[in-house]
Amino acid sequence: MVVVAGFGVSHYFFNRGEIGLSVPLAYPALLYLLARSLWLGFRGGDGLRPEEWAPYVGGLTVHDVDALHAHLTRSDAIREIAPALRAAIAREPVHDRSR
Asked: Beta-strand (E) ranges in 11-98?
């Protein structure tokens, strides 16, 4: 809440044309968001589990990919994801070619 309030106060001063007050008030909030994002990105651990999405989606099919979430758009991960996604779109069973 403090971060949102900081942005709100900064926005208030910005709208009044008081840039000298507005900009410095935004920095602590931005630094907090940066630090929090870095901490969440590099802390390791299990992170979110797929089952936690179940209440929010109609169905859930899980395909484990040996990659960090941030690396899922890299070519090696896409090569692993694409067949499963293609099969899901076509409603065909996925055949594991690695075995």
From this structure: none
Q: What is the C-alpha to C-alpha distance for residues 83 and 85, in angstroms, rounded to an integer? A: 5
Is 41:33 a contact under the CB 8 Å cutoff?
no
The Cα–Cα gap between 67 and 47 comes to 13
- Tell me the per-residue pLDDT of 53-77, one tens digit each, with 9 for 90 and over: 788 887 788 888 988 888 989 999 9
Distance CA 17, CA 38 (A): 32
70 CB-near residues (< 8 Å, 6+ apart): 41
Sign of CA dihedral 35, 32, 74, 63: positive
User: CA neighbours within 13 Å on the CB side: how many for 59?
Assistant: 2
pLDDT at 82: 93
